Structures are given as C-alpha cells and as structure tokens.
Amino acid sequence: MKPSLIDRVIGPRVDPAERSRHTLRYGTPGFLLLCARVLLLVSLFLPYWNMELHAPQYPDNLNLTAYMNHLSGDVAEINGLNHYIGMRPLEEAAQFERSVGVYVMIGLVVLLELASFIHSRWAVLLVLPVMLFPGVFLLDLYLWMSHFGMNLDPDAPLSSAIEPFVPPILGTGTIGQFKTVATPGIGLWLGTAASVILVIALFFHRRAYRPLSRSSSATAA
Amino acid sequence: MLFLTGRTPRRATAAALVLIGLLTGHAAAQSMNDVQKIAKDRGLSTADLLAAAKTYTPSGQKDDYIMFSSGGHSGQVFVIGVPSMRHLRTIAVFTPEPWQGWGYGVGEEILEEGYVDGKANLWGDTHHPALSETNGDYDGQFLFINDKINARVAVIDLRDFETKQIIKNPLTVSDHGGTFVTPNTEYVIEGGQYSVPWGFKYAPISEYKERYKGSVTLWKFNRKKGRIMEDESFAIELPPYWQDLADAGKLASDGFIFMNSINTEMATGGIEDKKPPFEAGASCNATDFMHIIDWRKAEEVYKAGKVTRIEGFPVIMLETAIEEGLLHVTPEPRSPHGVDVAPKGDFVVVSGKLDPHVTIYSVKNIKAAIANKTYSGKEPFGIPILDFDSVIEAQVEVGLGPLHTQFGPDGYAYTSLFLDSAVARWTLGGSYGSGTPEPDWTLVHKTPVQYNVGHIGVAEGDTVTPDGTHLISFNKWSVDRFFPTGPLLPQNFQLIDISQQGTEMPVIYDMPIGMGEPHYAQIIKADKLNPWKVYPDIGWDPATMTLDPMAPKAKMERVVRNGNTVEVYMTAIRSHFNPEHVTVKQGDTVIWRITNVERAVDATHGFSIPVYNINLSLEPGETATIEFIADTPGTFPFYCSEFCSALHLEMMGYLLVEPAD
C-alpha cells in the first residue's frame, strides 16, 4: 500500500521495542529540539542587541538595549540627542516587529515542538525558520537602522553638519563626538546557539530516521 | 611615582613614597626629580608637600567628608568637600539667589514664610547648621539652620539640597541657641538670644526685668513630612538673660538640653547716657548660668496643657517650669560661649570667654544634684541653682578666649581659643582617659591658626561616634593669608590634620570664604548622604516634594486663555522651549508652568524673562510655576540661562506683550 501524504510527511513511526533498544539514537534529535526550544524561550527575557554610546560628557556611557518586545536603556536621552540630527524617535522603529515578537517566538517554539514529531525530511522545513531567526533579526535591525540613518529630517538643527549614515549594527562606529559599540545580546547568542543545536539535531534526526524511511519505502515498494 | 603618574586612593602611601624619595635622594624616576624641582622653585617644604598629598584631590576623585557650613550673613549654607576644601554648592536659604532661581520665580512662598509680620526680610544671619540625627548620629536626611537676626529656622532636604521650610519664631526676634537637634531629631532646638517682650512688642527698656523675656523653642520635626510642625511645637519661658549656645543631651544625658546664658546681670546698656555699655554691664558677674532643661518632662507638661498661649503659641511659663522641676541652672564661667556634650553624653564642656579654662560638668553629678536638691540658692526668678562644686567634674586650663569644643574618637577634645588664635587639644578623663597616652584632663597641644578662630568643626565631632581625622578652624580674620581683595577680606577656613595623637596636628590647607561670615559647620561622612542625581519623575515640584499634577508634559504644551488669565504650559529640553512664542495682552495675569523634561544628569535648564525679574533653575524633571502680571508691554526674548548644549544660545523664545489700547 502506498503511504498517504500525511504518513509521508510525518515519516516512519518507531517501534517501541526498537526505540527502547536504541534510546540514544532516537532520543537525541528530540532532546536537542527541546534544548533549542528552551533556549528560545529563555531568550525572550534577555537582551538581543546592545549599543553603547561613548562621549566625553557621558562618563557612564549611554546604553540602548533591544529585547524581543521592547527597548530599554537611555532611550529618552538618545532620542533627545537624535533630534539634533533629525533622526526619528527610536520607538518608531520596528514597532510591528516588537508588537509581534513574543508571538513569533512562541510560534517558532511551536514549530520545533511539531518538528519533534516529524520523522521525515520535512522536519527541515519546520526547523529552518528558527535556524534563520538570528540572521533575520540582524537583517531587520540593519534595515531599520539604515532607514532611520539615511532618512534624516532635513530641517533638523544639525542637518547640515551630519551626513546621513548607517551605524554598524555590530562593531564600532563614529557619529559626531560619539563612538558607538554595538554587540549582540545574550538573547541573540542563545538564538544563535539554538540554530547551531538545530543543525546538530538535524544531523542526528537524519541518522535516526533516514534508515527507517528507506526501509519503509523499500517495504512499500 | 604613584603620586605623579596615577590616581590612587592610598594618597597617604603615595605621599610617603614622595617623602621617602625626597628624604633619601633615591628619586630614581624622572618624575621624582620633577617633584623636587617644583618644590624647590616654589619654596615648598617637606611638610608642605605632605599637606598637599593629604588634601590634593585629583579630578574625578571625591571627598571623604561633606561639610555643611553656615553662610553667616549671606543667609545661605555652603557645602564644602573635605579634605579637598572645594566649595561644592551654596544652598539658598534666607536670601534670594538667582543661580538657583530662589526668589526669582521659585521659593517665594518659602521665603515669604520667613517674612516678619508680613514685612519682607530677604537675608539671614545663619549661624548653626544641624544635621538630622538618629540615635545621636548624623543620618544624612535633613539639615536645619537658624537665622540669628530674625529668629527663624529653615529646613533643608538633603535629597535635593534645597530649602523646604522657613519658620519664624512668633515670640522672639533674635536667636542663637539653634539649631541643635535631640538625638532622634524629635525636636529642633531654638534658643532666643537678645531678650525682648513677647512677640517683640514695644516696651521701654526701663521695664527690662519685668517685661523682657528669654525663651527656648522646641520645634517638633516630622521626618516623614520633612517639615517642622508648628502646631506640635512649644516654647519654655526663660529669664531675660541672653540665652546663648545650646546642645542636646545624648546617651547618658538624653532628655536634657544644656543652654548657656550671658548678661545674667540683666544690664540694659546706655553708653550715651554714661551708663555702662553692654560689653561691660553684661560681663561684671564672675559667673553666668547654664540652663539645664528636661525636655522630655517639658513635652509632658506641654501635652498636659499646662501652657499659656502667647502670640497664639504655647509657652510653658517660667513658674510652671520651676514647679514641674524641668528647669535648673548652675553657675558657669562668665560670658560663656560653647556648651558641648561629650560623645557618651556624660560630660558637658563649657568655655567662658574670659576664663582660660574649660569647665567640665558631670551629668551624673547633675542628675544627683537635681534628685537630692543640692541647691546653692535660687536665681532672681526662683530657678534652683545646682551647687557648682557638686556638679563639676574638672577644669582644664587651655588658653585665652576659649569658645567651642568638639570631640575626637579617642578621648581628645578640641577647643577653639579666640584670643590665643589657636586650637587646643586636651584629654578627657573618666572612661575616655584610656584612649590617649597623656594624663586625664590635661592640655596636650595648641596649634596656632590664622586668625581669630570662632567655632571649630571635627568630622562628626558632636555625635555619639566622632570620626576625628579632620578639624576645621573657622577663622574670622585672614589678615595676610590671601591676596587682599580691598579692605574686605575673606574668612579663612583652615583644615587641621588631627589623625595622629599627641602634639602632631598641623594646618594643612587654607580655604578662603569670600561670601558672608560662616559661624559653625558640621562635617558628615560623605557615604551617609544619598542625594538624588535627577528628580524622581518628570513634573516634580521640589517645594512639595511630590509630582505636580499640573506640570506640563511633552506633547501637551499649550497656551490657554481664560478671560484675562493666560496659562502657559511649557517644556524645556535641549535645545528648545515649547512653545517658543507666547503672546499676551498688557494687564493679563500670566501663569507660566514649565517643566524640564530631561532625564540626563546635570541637564539643567535656566529660564529667564528680561524686565520681569524672572530666572529659574530647572533641574532634570523639575517643574515650576511662576505668576506675574504682564504690566509692561514690549518684546521680551526669554532664554535658557544655563549653558545646556551646543545650541544653547538658540534655546530661546519671545514673550510678546501687546500694549493695551
């Protein structure tokens, strides 16, 4: 009998006896997926991105920290300074992303949850968005930064003194008397760690279930 | 090496290294030669270099102690870092002060509290600051200060170092025995000075003994509200002597107030009529009277309602005070000035200005004499006199013109000597005796000061746990110490290192005070203070220490006209006011609310309107409301009077007052 589409997508089921004989083989992919889920959930509460602004008159520096759903740090002060160069208030950036950030993250966790039940190559499809997430975050950040930095109000007090610019989203840059130091936050590191774990998880996933798929398709044939 | 190349908290170590280098000639590094060369060029001795090492405070390094000094007849309080002796701030109190906007848009209501019978009195003669105390130790929360000229007391909140209240004494016109606080700041003590009839009403001087009065007022302090509660305060009538300095008992003497008096002769002067002038008439008795007041008992008497309302204020009359046994006196060397309670509260030290001794009373003996009624008589108003010999503990000859005493942690006491122009170190006896190598009750050393010392201040030197280490001599004359700034010369605050025992207590720094004549100062460990760096929230009213619900906020700026009243809701942020145009008609009442919406430390904005005599200092978060009648038509550029930012000059706007038809 030809397996149904659903059977093909969720892949071969493992016989309990077989599973108890090879707990490590069949347990590892699921365990790694669980680790990735935990990391993502924890990262919700941790900063994803941080920028320090160094200037002579701020001996304690100014700080800007981005979480999945909010900005913290010296936002008011940085906005106050940015108004001189005609940059819009930071809260106006990525409003949609911040409003849905938590739900997206929960969605990603649900995808991983589902992936742990899929024993076919289709699991890759579910895992892929999570793996790409850190990169997407940085890309989005870059797009907003460049949008804000390149679209300065021409009527701002210092518009003639400062050319439009894109501050580095990672690493150091200079704007006026400020040196900017942008670093990934722990949240982003956890997200990245989740991506790496997912690559490993897929490797073990393939090692555990591919022989089963083959044998089952052989049987079907 | 360290001294020259880097900042180090161990300045003493660094100084020692410099000295070792200088003394042994082992100045291997180039930098040590530089020190020697500069010292030689400038004529600096080793002692000078050591003094510099003890006081020099590199940029960014903060002081260990903060001194709150009276500003004398500037009417203000000065905040000074110790040991750097850097003037950190003036706190506006009784006198308008434009830098803080005090009297030029803010603080008017508080200054008006200090008006005398509605008459503007816009200066003060601040004498004795008192830090609030908990269990006899400074707690760094509040500061009180008296104004001698008009018998007023001010309350300063040490969260923002601003004056919150001025209270005018309804009974008397001048004070001196204030401010001193009881060990838990239950009361702020204000002793009157020159006797006057109640409410300073007119009475001929021929009726001095009958109608002129002395008094001490106990102002109840409510720590939570940060205010003196006038309706929970009371006074005690005292004889018409001139009550002078006071001190609150603590520990062994908890519950007592000790208060000096001069002119127990009740001289009335009259030099113009060939009568003895006050200076002679008030100094002819061999002894004056120290008042010993049981304030806890007085509080009970007040609460029991055994008071007479005078000028609407509850007063425990002299006869009640005597009847209730809450008031005694004991002789003290004539024309006394300081009366200072030792750290454990067991001794009281009095200096008679015209007697070379300090006289030490034993609190144990005082209590015994009160209990046993060991009286040597009664003074003219019937107050029992505790027998001098039965309450005395010791007398120590310290020098000429002794005034005020402060205490170290180790059993030393320090007394200023006005005539000798010196500060004496002497040893206490009793349980303090073991702290010092010298015998009890002996003079150890005198350090000359330049010149004519009044009060002295030792770090936490009037608390139950003196720190010692630093003593500051508040000198009245500087004569030749500084560049002569015309005939009016600055006062001289001299820092003396008292960290070593014995005869080693050198002057290590001179600080000129070029505004007012400070009297007393208290010195608190800096880490006990916890001031705000910005106001807690945007729209904060420092006068009430609450958020002002009417405070303008960002995006809510507007100008509202209501008949002849124009209300302005303005915000200030680098580098603009919003709104920038305010147009009113001549004769309009203008209520101008303005908030500094900044959150950055030190982002203070000024707000000044020409012609209308307005200048505000708005610290981050602060809101202020000014009200004036736009009676002068014209075009008035207002601006930020504190250089706030690169575009500070552009932070301005126009007040346009259209002329009435």
Salient structural properties:
heterodimer; A: 221 residues; alpha+beta; five-stranded antiparallel β-sheet; 5 strands; B: 661 residues; Methylamine Dehydrogenase, Chain H; Immunoglobulin-like; 3 domains; five-stranded mixed β-sheet; 11 helices; disordered N terminus
Question: What's the helix and strand layout?
Answer:
The complex is a heterodimer of chains A (221) and B (661).
Chain A lengths: L4 H6 L5 H6 L1 H21 L5 E7 L2 E9 L4 E3 L1 H11 L9 H21 L7 H28 L20 E5 L2 E7 L1 H35 L1
Antiparallel strand pairs in A: 1-2, 1-5, 2-3, 4-5
Chain B lengths: L1 H4 L5 H14 L5 H13 L3 H10 L9 E6 L6 E6 L3 E6 L16 H6 L16 E5 L2 E11 L4 E6 L4 E7 L6 E7 L5 E6 L15 H4 L2 E9 L4 E12 L3 E7 L7 E7 L15 H4 L5 E8 H9 L4 E3 L2 E4 L1 H6 L3 E7 L2 E6 L5 E6 L4 E6 H10 L2 E4 L5 E3 L1 H4 E6 L4 E6 L4 E6 L4 E6 L15 E6 L4 E7 L8 E8 L15 E7 L9 E7 L7 E5 L14 E2 L4 E2 L10 E5 L2 E9 L2 E3 L2 E5 L3 E8 L8 E5 L4 E5 L4 E7 L4 E6 L12 E7 L3
Helix pairs in contact in B: 2-4
Could you characterize the architecture of this molecule?
The complex is a heterodimer of chains A (221) and B (661). Chain A has helices at residues 5-10, 16-21, 23-43, 75-85, 95-115, 123-150, 186-220, and strands at 49-55, 58-66, 71-73, 171-175, 178-184. By secondary structure, chain A is α+β, with helices and mostly antiparallel strands. Chain A has one domain (25-214). A five-stranded antiparallel sheet of chain A has the order 3-2-1-5-4. In chain A, strand 2 (58-66) and strand 3 (71-73) form a beta hairpin. Chain A starts with a helix and ends with a helix. The model of chain A has no long low-confidence stretch (mean pLDDT 90). The longest helix of chain B has 14 residues, at 11-24. In chain B, strand 28 and strand 29 form a beta hairpin. The radius of gyration of chain B is 27 Å and the shape is globular. Chain B is mostly beta strands and 661 residues long. In chain B, helix 2 (11-24) packs antiparallel against helix 4 (46-55). Chain A binds chain B through residues 74, 76-77, 80, 84, 157, and chain B through 573-575, 598-600, 646-647, 650.
